[in-house]
Design goal:
By secondary structure, the protein is mostly helical. The protein contains three helices and two strands; from the N terminus they run H-H-H-E-E. It has a domain of about 50 residues. Helix content is about 30%, strand content about 5%.
Length: about 120
């Protein structure tokens, strides 16, 4: 997949993945490797978490359409390597003023709603 074309979106709009479809079953090992890698990547790339969840459901009996969707997500990741999340502290300090110990935490927001904390 190193030489593949990149994709602007992680999945096609309106795609429906089904457990039993008309397409053929595939060798599950490659699919599990790709799915596991994408699930690991979700902790660093929350923008793909929603798309990775459906392909994770079909790890036991993957079909060709599931593999093509997983590869599409990989193409999106390749095309969005330069995307970054910018966190601003707006002048706030991450130190507790009473005991001078550092405090840390995170909340990922999407469209005004927290998606991870």
């Amino acid at each position: 997949m190193l030489g593949c074309n990149s994709s602007q979106t992680p999945v096609d709009c309106g795609i429906k993945l089904e457990k039993e479809g008309s397409d053929k079953a595939i060798y599950a090992t490659l699919y599990k490797e790709i799915g596991g890698s994408l699930r690991f990547l979700c902790s660093r790339r929350p923008d793909i978490a929603y798309e990775v969840w459906p392909i994770s459901r079909f790890m036991n009996h993957p079909r060709l359409s599931h593999l093509l969707t997983a590869k599409r997500i990989l193409r999106y990741v390749k095309g969005s390597l330069d995307y970054r999340l910018l966190f601003s502290n707006h002048g706030r300090n991450a130190i507790d003023e009473s005991d001078r110990k550092s405090t840390a935490g995170y909340v990922f927001m999407m469209c005004g709603a927290p998606i991870s904390r």
